[in-house]
Amino acid sequence: MDPDWLCFHPNPRKPRFRLPAGAVDAHCHVFGPAARFPFAPERKYTPCDAGKEALFALRDHLGFARNVIVQASCHGRDNRALLDALRTAGDRARGVVSLDPATSDADLRAMDEAGVRGVRFNFLRRLVDAPPTEECLSIARRIAPLGWHVVVYFEAADLPGLEPFLKSLPTPVVVDHMGRPEIGKGPDHPGFRAFLRFVENNDHVWTKVTCPERLTVQGPPYDDVVPFACAVVERFPDRVLWGTDWPHPNMKSHMPDDGDLVDFIPRIAPSPVVQRKLLVDNPMRLYWS
Ligand code: 0GY
C-alpha cells in the first residue's frame, strides 16, 4: 500500500444511535485482497486490503442489514472483487460497477444476477482520467433497460460543466457525497445553492449525504458539515441515501471511527420518519425492488 495510506479503524465502537431494522449502508467498497484480486495497473493509489469479510463484520457490528458496494477506482473496471463480495452476501448486498464500454450483454446479465444495480462514472481527476461523457451516455443507454441507475462522483466546481450530461441521462442519477461542496465556504455559497437547485429541478437526481469525515474542514465531530447535509435531507427526503464509505480511501487527516459516523446520522436526519426513508425505504426502492 502507499506509504502514507491510512488503514480503516481496527475496532470501531458500537454506535449509540439504534439503526432502524433493515438499514442499508449504501456506500462502501471492497479492496482486494490484492493477492486474489490485484489492483488495476492504471490506479492512482494503492490501498490496504479491505476485503468482504471485514466489510460484512462491520455491517453486523454497526447494526446494518445490507450493503451497497461501490466499485472504487483502485480496481479500475475490473469488478471481480466486488462481484465476489456480492455473491457471498447474496440478497444482503447490491453493487455498483465501473464498466468497460466493450462489456458484453451476457456479462451485464451476469452482473445483474449477482446483484449489480448501477454503474459509476467517476470524474475526480485525482482518482481517474475522466471518461468521455459520450461514452458514459452510451453505457447508460445500455444499462437503462436492466433497471439500473448511474452513480456519479464529481467536485462542486465541475457541476456546471457536467449538468447538461447529467440531465440527459435516461436513468436515476445518484450523486456521491452531496457533489463535494466546499464546506469552508458555508451552505449559502453559490456553489452549494446551485447544487440544491440542480437536485430540485431534476426529479431523477438523488444524492448521498455521506462523507462528513472527507468534506469537513474543522474535523471531528464534523459540525461544519451538518448544515449542508441537513439542507439536503430536509428538501429531498425521498431521494437521499447514507453510507459509511468504509474503508475510507485516501483519508489523509484522520481515520474516522465508523461508530462515530453512524452517530452522525441523527444530527442530519433528526426525525425517525426521515431516518427510515434515508436508511431503509430509499435504498430499498433503488436497489432491492
Ligand atoms: C469514495 C471516495 C474516494 C475514492 C473513490 O473510487 C474511488 O477510488 O471513490 C475519494 O478518494 O474521495 O467515495 O470512496
Name of the level-1 CATH class: Alpha Beta
Biggest β-sheet, characterized?
Answer: 8 strands, parallel
Separate helix tally: 10
Query: Which oligomeric form is depicted?
Result: single chain
**Mean of residue pLDDT values:** 98
Low-confidence stretches: none
* CATH architecture tag: Alpha-Beta Barrel
Total E-strand runs: 8
Q: What structural category do the secondary elements indicate?
A: alpha/beta
Straight-line distance between termini: 38 Å
Q: Helical percent range?
A: 25-40%
Order of helices and strands: EHEHEHEHEHEHEHHEHH
Radius of gyration: 17 Å
Topology:
Layout: E1 24-28, H1 52-62, E2 66-70, H2 80-89, E3 93-97, H3 105-114, E4 116-122, H4 133-143, E5 149-153, H5 159-168, E6 173-175, H6 190-201, E7 205-208, H7 212-215, H8 226-235, E8 240-241, H9 258-268, H10 272-287
Parallel strand pairs: 1-2, 2-3, 3-4, 4-5, 5-6, 6-7, 7-8
The chain binds (1E,3Z)-4-hydroxybuta-1,3-diene-1,2,4-tricarboxylic acid (0GY).
